[in-house]
Design brief:
This protein is an alpha+beta fold. The longest helix is centred in the middle third of the chain and has 32 residues, at 223-254. The chain has twelve helices and 13 strands. The strands form three sheets. Strands 1, 2, 3, 4, 5 and 6 form a six-stranded antiparallel sheet that branches. A five-stranded mixed sheet has the order 8-10-11-13-12, covered by helices on one side.
């Protein structure tokens, strides 16, 4: 089939992407109207000029070297993987761009075609989303500070939490609008908005209702009732902190801000501290049995290991009934530490076990139990940072065993 020259010219003239053709000397041979508008040049002002005319001056040496290498080993490719690319307009303004390169030879001369997209709008969206994340982290820190003053400032705290909820809802709406414009982030962020909204409302509603009832109990005989509502408020705020910790941990992991710092410590003393910290979360009649085999001295990142154990223990407590036993067994081998946590809880179906470590995933039998669906995802990534692994074995309705294995360095690098 013979190519219609008129169609080719029309494609070139009316393309929404900028198209620039350069010869083997890196000189501009053709430029389409979209590229003229993008860079603010008319064609006759750039044809015959080096392509570096459209590149910020600070990149000229690197670009010349990259261009030379491309001419030696030409290949069709997308430029900018792992780094930001910029073009320079006629007025000196720099614009972020994405570039795809293709080539052909005519009479033994190599010609390179660049397809250019101005991504300024996308970059602005990314900048706005980062700003929203900073604002959310700031709001989280403010809420943590409120927790330390709970007993003496219940009414004040309630008002601040109400304001925080309004701000959070506003942030969710703004975030949702931004997500609609960034398709590749839409799914995970939409789920974040949904889960955050649901999980925040429940404890905040508890705080508001209990705080309102506190003002009605004014006599000494009502002290028991006051104590019960104060405990409800404390439990709700602790739940808020857990939710916020999950979101902040995920954010730090996604930004590669979590580093490992191995130290030598005693696993028995370490577990005693963890179990003491978890006591307030235990249900009535629940019992945690701990045993330790092998050398008690290990070397790993104590903070990350603590986060892993606390998350797994919190799950075992939450998904187990009252008057049940949770077994923890620590075994130190020559090259690695193995910790098993077994419960008699609701268990996990075989189908759900395939997605356990996905972010925001909740098992079908856990949708009515409070949680963000981030715990196991974060635990898995912490274990990866420690160069270890985690396995989950479970029978629906019978219980679950989590097995964590991490290397231990007795020489401590």
């Amino acid at each position: 089939m013979k190519l219609d020259t008129a169609h080719l010219v029309s494609l070139f003239e009316h393309a929404t992407e900028g198209i620039i053709l350069t010869n083997s000397k890196g000189q501009i041979t053709l430029i389409n109207p979209a590229a003229e508008r993008m860079f603010g040049y008319e064609a006759h002002l750039v044809v015959g000029k080096p392509i570096e005319l459209l590149i910020p001056e600070r990149f000229h040496p690197m670009h010349a070297a990259d261009r030379g290498e491309f001419y030696v080993h030409p290949e069709n490719r997308i430029m900018g993987s792992g780094r930001d690319l910029y073009g320079r307009r006629s007025d000196g303004v720099e614009i972020p761009v994405e570039i795809s390169l293709s080539f052909y030879k005519k009479e033994e001369e190599l010609f390179v075609t660049a397809f250019i997209v101005d991504i300024t709008h996308r970059k602005n969206i990314e900048k706005n989303m980062l700003q929203q994340q900073v604002e959310l982290e700031k709001m989280t820190n403010d809420m943590r500070k409120l927790n330390t003053q709970l007993e003496v400032k219940v009414e004040e705290r309630t008002m601040i939490l109400k304001e925080a909820l309004l701000k959070l809802e506003q942030s969710q709406n703004e975030l949702h609008d931004a997500l609609e414009k960034e398709k590749h982030l839409n799914e995970i962020k939409s789920r974040f908005v949904s889960i955050a909204s649901h999980e925040f409302r429940t404890p905040l509603s508890t705080v508001l209702s209990s705080a309102s009832l506190l003002s009605k109990y004014t006599t000494t005989e009502d002290q028991g009732k006051r104590d019960r509502h104060v405990e409800k408020i404390k439990d709700a705020v602790r739940n808020l902190n857990d939710i916020l910790d999950d979101f902040l941990s995920l954010g730090k992991l996604d930004e590669n801000k979590v580093e490992t710092h191995p130290t030598v410590f005693n696993i028995e003393d370490f577990m005693d501290e963890v179990l003491e910290e978890m006591k307030p979360q235990e249900k009535s009649g629940q019992r945690i049995a701990f045993s330790c085999d092998g050398s008690p001295d290990i070397c790993t990142d104590k903070r990350l290991l603590k986060n892993i154990i606390i998350n797994l223990l919190a799950n075992a407590i939450k998904f187990s009934a009252e008057n049940t036993t949770i077994d923890i067994r620590s075994t130190t081998h020559p090259a690695h530490l193995e910790i098993c946590i077994s419960d008699e809880g609701i268990g996990i179906s075989d189908e759900d076990q395939q997605q356990l470590f996905s972010s925001f995933f909740r098992g079908k039998n856990a949708v009515n139990i409070q949680g963000t669906g981030l715990g196991l995802h974060i635990i898995k990534r912490y274990a990866d940072l420690l160069k270890g692994n985690i396995k989950i074995e479970s029978d629906l309705g019978k219980g679950t065993t989590a097995r964590v294995t991490i290397p231990v360095d007795y020489q401590k690098q």
